[in-house]
Specification:
2 copies of one chain form a homodimer. In chain A, strands 1, 2, 3, 4, 5, 6, 7, 8, 9 and 10 form a 10-stranded antiparallel beta sheet that branches. The first copy, chain A, is globular. With 217 residues, the first copy, chain A, is of the alpha+beta class. In chain A, 16% of the residues lie in helices and 38% in strands. Chain A has one domain (9-169): Electron Transport, Fmn-binding Protein, Chain A (Pnp Oxidase, Chain A, Roll), CATH 2.30.110. Chain A has 4 helices and 11 strands, in the order E-H-E-E-E-H-E-E-E-H-H-E-E-E-E. Strand 10 (184-192) of chain A pairs antiparallel with strand 11 (196-197) of chain B.
Chain lengths: 217, 217
């Protein structure tokens, strides 16, 4: 992917092109800062959108699920759109039509590939756990063959992707600035609460640190 | 919609059917607690997923955007899937395969209808602003005809929808409870930060209250 040119016309940002970004670093940072993406696929001519955990390894975007899942069965080998996004702030202006949100979003188009090799599947799942909870994989009860079999892992290329970012805050039509109502931004943040141990956690064992928003190759 | 039966087979929750909910109150509460939904549509045989603000008025789910938007042009009259969801907590177990998230999600399938009538369009946009910022519409600079024309409003029925909820926290395979690693839940919450006024807001004018998560008819 080039830093300035869209990799395809269908991921080119048309509305508000100044918000479009085509460099991998920008796309990767949005993916690496998210826990969930929205996977779109077509089944019997109808679109479906399923939220699911996503993670990146180099040039690949991964997701996974139960091998019995309709979503995963339907998407293997099929065209997918994976959208990853967050709202950074509510934006209030003096005209209703200038209200907005500041956001970061990435749209990835591709074909879903199934991870067939068991070693590769296990490595992908380890990367998924380590991405959110660094150091945790080695502390877990080791995987069993039936767990691995019951889990399907899919990936798509990060070659046809674009990012769209709005970060300009409030913006009024010329002349509206003196209209006597409040305008500005209200930040939105996702925060982690205090960990709640299950009843079997012995005293003194602390919850792992959660890593959000770190680009890692 | 019935409280217990899926309105169609394609929105029936197959994986983990105990997590499925088919009553409108549950679906409505998930929609009313969200700012953004993910709209899926098909264009030239490829799925697309676009995040966009959504709101509900009675039996209809609305979204809007620029009349120049490809997404809105492509979806008018077409089949759509709108998915609305939030993560409530990260769930950590003693096997990597039992890690999960607690979540609320709603999937709505339908056809996108264009709001043609200008009065109806204006009422829908007022409902959108009032849903997030009660009392704000009356304080705004009144709409101009060209603003209304440049804005497209769409809706779909809430007749074919289902909700899926996971709220059981950590859950291990039998025998894993004594494995010596931390397990439990880490809550995730979206919080509003302190409002940041733009440079034209006079002293003493305070930001409007934001209403999230209130079911309103």
């Amino acid at each position: 992917m080039s830093a300035t040119m869209p990799p395809s016309d269908r991921v080119r940002v048309r509305r508000k092109p100044e918000r479009g970004h085509y460099d991998r670093a920008t796309v990767d940072a949005i993916i690496d800062g998210a826990i969930v993406g929205h996977v779109g696929f077509v089944l019997d001519d109808h679109p479906y959108v399923i939220p699911t955990a996503i993670w990146r390894q180099g040039d690949r975007l991964y997701w996974h699920g139960s091998s019995a899942s309709r979503m995963l069965r339907a998407t293997a080998g099929a065209r997918v759109c994976i959208t990853v996004d967050r709202i950074d702030a509510l934006v209030l202006a003096r005209s209703g039509f200038d209200h907005s949100v500041d956001y970061h979003s990435a749209v990835i188009l591709g074909v879903a590939h199934l991870v067939v090799d068991e070693t590769e599947k296990l490595a992908a799942l380890e990367a998924f756990v380590e991405r959110l909870y660094p150091g945790r994989w080695a502390t877990l009860r080791p995987p069993r063959p039936k767990e691995l079999k019951a889990t399907t892992v899919l990936w798509t290329e990060l070659s046809e992707a674009s990012a769209k970012i709005r970060d300009i805050g409030a913006h009024d039509e010329p002349g509206d600035e003196t209209w006597p109502t409040w305008a500005g931004t209200i930040p939105l943040t996702t925060v982690l609460g205090d960990p709640i141990p299950d009843p079997f956690v012995p005293d003194g064992l602390v919850a792992p640190a959660v890593r959000l928003g770190v680009a890692a190759d």
